[in-house]
Amino acid sequence: MLNRLTTPTCLRGGCWTATAVTACALLACAAPQPPKEETYGAMVGVVNHTDRYVYSASVNGASGGHMSEFGAGGGSICCVSVPVKWRPGLKAHVEWDMPVGSQHTYQEKTVEIEPYGPDDSGHSLYIHLFPNGDVRVVVARYPGYSKGHPIAPPVKLLDWKRKEGA
Protein backbone atom coordinates (compact mmCIF):
# COMPACT_ATOMS: atom_id res chain seq x y z
CA MET A 1 0.00 0.00 0.00
CA LEU A 2 1.36 3.40 -0.98
CA ASN A 3 1.46 6.12 1.57
CA ARG A 4 0.24 9.44 0.15
CA LEU A 5 2.92 11.36 2.08
CA THR A 6 5.82 9.21 0.86
CA THR A 7 4.57 8.47 -2.71
CA PRO A 8 6.29 10.63 -5.40
CA THR A 9 4.06 13.24 -7.04
CA CYS A 10 4.59 11.63 -10.48
CA LEU A 11 2.85 8.48 -9.35
CA ARG A 12 -0.14 10.50 -8.11
CA GLY A 13 -0.58 12.21 -11.55
CA GLY A 14 1.19 15.52 -10.81
CA CYS A 15 3.94 15.07 -13.45
CA TRP A 16 1.44 14.42 -16.22
CA THR A 17 -0.50 17.55 -15.40
CA ALA A 18 2.66 19.69 -15.38
CA THR A 19 3.87 18.16 -18.63
CA ALA A 20 0.54 18.77 -20.36
CA VAL A 21 0.44 22.41 -19.21
CA THR A 22 4.04 23.00 -20.37
CA ALA A 23 3.37 21.40 -23.78
CA CYS A 24 0.27 23.53 -24.33
CA ALA A 25 2.17 26.69 -23.38
CA LEU A 26 5.00 25.87 -25.81
CA LEU A 27 2.58 25.16 -28.65
CA ALA A 28 0.74 28.41 -28.04
CA CYS A 29 4.01 30.39 -28.23
CA ALA A 30 5.35 28.68 -31.34
CA ALA A 31 4.96 30.90 -34.41
CA PRO A 32 3.58 29.21 -37.50
CA GLN A 33 6.27 28.56 -40.07
CA PRO A 34 5.74 30.15 -43.51
CA PRO A 35 5.58 27.69 -46.38
CA LYS A 36 8.98 26.93 -47.87
CA GLU A 37 9.68 28.81 -51.12
CA GLU A 38 9.87 26.49 -54.14
CA THR A 39 13.21 26.88 -55.96
CA TYR A 40 15.16 25.28 -58.80
CA GLY A 41 18.83 25.10 -59.80
CA ALA A 42 19.49 27.64 -62.57
CA MET A 43 22.50 27.66 -64.86
CA VAL A 44 24.51 30.91 -64.60
CA GLY A 45 25.61 32.98 -67.60
CA VAL A 46 27.64 36.18 -67.94
CA VAL A 47 26.88 38.99 -70.38
CA ASN A 48 29.72 41.52 -70.62
CA HIS A 49 28.77 44.94 -71.99
CA THR A 50 32.28 46.33 -71.35
CA ASP A 51 35.58 46.51 -73.23
CA ARG A 52 37.34 44.63 -70.39
CA TYR A 53 37.72 40.87 -69.99
CA VAL A 54 35.75 39.31 -67.12
CA TYR A 55 38.13 36.86 -65.45
CA SER A 56 35.47 35.52 -63.10
CA ALA A 57 31.94 36.30 -61.98
CA SER A 58 29.55 34.75 -59.50
CA VAL A 59 26.07 35.23 -58.14
CA ASN A 60 25.20 34.24 -54.56
CA GLY A 61 28.44 32.25 -54.50
CA ALA A 62 27.68 30.24 -57.66
CA SER A 63 30.23 30.78 -60.39
CA GLY A 64 29.18 32.22 -63.72
CA GLY A 65 32.59 31.67 -65.30
CA HIS A 66 34.41 34.23 -67.44
CA MET A 67 33.53 36.27 -70.53
CA SER A 68 35.38 38.10 -73.27
CA GLU A 69 34.98 41.80 -73.98
CA PHE A 70 31.48 42.55 -75.33
CA GLY A 71 30.72 38.84 -74.93
CA ALA A 72 27.47 37.04 -74.22
CA GLY A 73 26.73 33.40 -73.84
CA GLY A 74 24.18 30.96 -72.59
CA GLY A 75 23.94 29.77 -69.01
CA SER A 76 26.80 27.32 -68.80
CA ILE A 77 27.83 26.93 -65.16
CA CYS A 78 25.65 25.07 -62.66
CA CYS A 79 23.91 26.13 -60.42
CA VAL A 80 22.34 28.85 -58.32
CA SER A 81 19.08 28.45 -56.42
CA VAL A 82 16.31 30.61 -57.89
CA PRO A 83 12.69 30.87 -56.71
CA VAL A 84 10.16 29.43 -59.15
CA LYS A 85 8.03 32.56 -58.69
CA TRP A 86 9.51 36.06 -58.77
CA ARG A 87 8.65 38.30 -55.83
CA PRO A 88 9.40 41.94 -55.06
CA GLY A 89 12.64 42.43 -53.14
CA LEU A 90 14.32 39.33 -54.61
CA LYS A 91 18.06 40.11 -54.54
CA ALA A 92 21.30 38.63 -55.80
CA HIS A 93 24.84 39.26 -54.58
CA VAL A 94 27.17 39.54 -57.59
CA GLU A 95 30.98 39.41 -57.42
CA TRP A 96 33.29 39.82 -60.42
CA ASP A 97 36.93 40.33 -61.37
CA MET A 98 37.94 42.46 -64.37
CA PRO A 99 41.75 42.55 -64.33
CA VAL A 100 43.74 45.54 -65.55
CA GLY A 101 46.90 44.03 -66.97
CA SER A 102 48.01 41.42 -64.44
CA GLN A 103 46.31 43.22 -61.54
CA HIS A 104 43.01 41.67 -60.46
CA THR A 105 40.17 44.13 -59.82
CA TYR A 106 37.50 42.59 -57.61
CA GLN A 107 34.10 44.21 -57.30
CA GLU A 108 30.80 43.25 -55.74
CA LYS A 109 27.27 44.54 -55.63
CA THR A 110 23.88 43.39 -54.37
CA VAL A 111 21.09 44.08 -56.86
CA GLU A 112 17.44 43.20 -57.30
CA ILE A 113 16.67 40.38 -59.69
CA GLU A 114 14.44 41.81 -62.40
CA PRO A 115 10.87 40.49 -62.64
CA TYR A 116 10.36 37.23 -64.52
CA GLY A 117 7.24 35.30 -65.36
CA PRO A 118 6.27 31.65 -65.70
CA ASP A 119 7.71 31.47 -69.25
CA ASP A 120 11.20 32.27 -67.91
CA SER A 121 10.99 30.37 -64.61
CA GLY A 122 13.07 27.21 -64.69
CA HIS A 123 15.62 28.74 -67.06
CA SER A 124 19.06 30.34 -66.67
CA LEU A 125 20.11 33.34 -64.59
CA TYR A 126 22.28 35.97 -66.31
CA ILE A 127 24.66 38.51 -64.80
CA HIS A 128 24.91 41.65 -66.99
CA LEU A 129 27.97 43.86 -66.37
CA PHE A 130 28.00 47.42 -67.78
CA PRO A 131 30.83 49.96 -68.29
CA ASN A 132 29.49 52.40 -65.69
CA GLY A 133 29.60 49.73 -62.97
CA ASP A 134 25.89 48.93 -63.21
CA VAL A 135 24.91 45.30 -62.76
CA ARG A 136 21.62 43.75 -63.78
CA VAL A 137 20.47 40.20 -63.06
CA VAL A 138 17.73 38.51 -65.07
CA VAL A 139 16.19 35.06 -65.36
CA ALA A 140 15.57 34.21 -69.00
CA ARG A 141 14.91 31.29 -71.29
CA TYR A 142 16.87 32.89 -74.13
CA PRO A 143 20.70 33.21 -74.01
CA GLY A 144 22.39 36.59 -73.54
CA TYR A 145 23.18 36.96 -77.26
CA SER A 146 19.59 36.31 -78.38
CA LYS A 147 17.08 38.89 -79.55
CA GLY A 148 14.59 37.16 -77.24
CA HIS A 149 16.70 37.93 -74.16
CA PRO A 150 15.17 40.68 -71.95
CA ILE A 151 18.30 42.88 -72.23
CA ALA A 152 19.82 43.68 -75.64
CA PRO A 153 23.15 41.90 -76.29
CA PRO A 154 26.43 43.83 -76.02
CA VAL A 155 27.40 45.99 -78.98
CA LYS A 156 31.06 46.25 -79.89
CA LEU A 157 31.92 49.71 -81.20
CA LEU A 158 33.20 49.73 -84.78
CA ASP A 159 36.49 51.43 -83.85
CA TRP A 160 37.08 49.24 -80.77
CA LYS A 161 40.41 47.44 -80.53
CA ARG A 162 41.63 45.23 -77.71
CA LYS A 163 43.93 47.19 -75.41
CA GLU A 164 47.44 45.84 -75.01
CA GLY A 165 47.99 44.45 -71.52
CA ALA A 166 44.32 44.82 -70.59
What would your notes on this structure say?
The chain has 166 residues and is mainly beta. It has a domain at 39-140: Immunoglobulin-like (Sandwich), CATH 2.60.40. It contains one helix and eight strands, in the order H-E-E-E-E-E-E-E-E. A hairpin with a 5-residue loop joins strand 7 (124-129) and strand 8. The protein is globular and about 60 Å long.
In brief, what are we looking at here?
The chain is mainly beta and 166 residues long. The protein has one helix at residues 14-29, and strands spanning 39-48, 54-59, 62-67, 77-83, 91-97, 106-112, 124-129, 135-140.
Major sheet strand order: 4-1-7-8
Mean of all residue-level pLDDT scores: 83
Shape descriptor reads: globular
Order of helices and strands: HEEEEEEEE
Report on the biggest sheet.
4 strands, mixed
Question: Helix count, per DSSP?
Answer: 1
Write the layout of secondary structure elements.
Blueprint: H1 14-29, E1 39-48, E2 54-59, E3 62-67, E4 77-83, E5 91-97, E6 106-112, E7 124-129, E8 135-140
Parallel strand pairs: 1-7
Antiparallel strand pairs: 1-4, 2-3, 2-5, 5-6, 7-8
Descriptive keywords:
166 residues; Immunoglobulin-like; 4-stranded mixed β-sheet; 4-stranded antiparallel β-sheet; 1 helix; 8 strands
